[in-house]
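Task: sequence design from structure.
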């Protein structure tokens, strides 16, 4: 039932927000002078790779640099996540679930952490509504594992309500070089 509800919800959200999505795409196309979308391989359910779609927030010629001013704004408001509704339509993602992480992290998961791949990754999730980038990897993994074990319609509904509440506040997390550590670094030092 969940994939069908996700698909129908994604269609409705895309229809409602289409003017906003088009406006953001045009602004980013002009700003970056290139494709406004950023596509990156991520890992989903059953450890299958897929191509995650986001709005671009960084210049490609910069190595691990901070985002542009417009990029920081779309990240802080989570508008960069809107194109992931396409991933939901392709049944690669869900509206709610653990955030999909990079393929390079696969060798670093312990057996318990691999449980996060028993469900589809989500645009929002339990870790996002409980601190997002301000919590460490250990806490994020615990929230992801908890979600995978307890997934239900009511839990998804609570997460979605909390997500909408958080969208009214800007994410104050910085995106500067070295401001966060990769999961692989965390895993090596645990």
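Answer:
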């Amino acid at each position: 039932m969940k994939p069908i509800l996700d698909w129908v919800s994604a269609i409705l959200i895309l229809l409602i927000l289409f003017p906003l999505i088009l406006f953001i795409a045009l602004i980013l196309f002009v700003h970056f002078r290139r494709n406004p979308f950023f596509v990156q391989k991520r890992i989903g359910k059953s450890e299958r790779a897929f191509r995650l779609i986001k709005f671009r927030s960084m210049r490609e010629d910069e190595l691990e640099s901070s985002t542009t001013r417009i990029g920081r704004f779309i990240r802080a408001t989570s508008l960069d996540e809107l194109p992931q509704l396409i991933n939901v339509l392709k049944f690669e993602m869900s509206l709610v679930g653990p955030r999909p992480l990079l393929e390079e992290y696969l060798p670093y998961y312990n057996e318990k952490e691999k449980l996060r791949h028993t469900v589809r990754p989500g645009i929002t999730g339990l870790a996002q509504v409980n601190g997002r980038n301000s919590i460490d990897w250990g806490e994020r993994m615990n929230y992801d594992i908890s979600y995978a074990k307890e997934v239900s319609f009511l839990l998804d509904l609570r997460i979605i309500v909390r997500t909408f509440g958080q969208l009214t506040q800007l994410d104050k997390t910085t995106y500067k070089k070295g401001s966060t550590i990769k999961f692989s670094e965390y895993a090596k030092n645990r």
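Helices lie at 2-32, 69-76, 84-89, 137-150, 153-167, 183-189.
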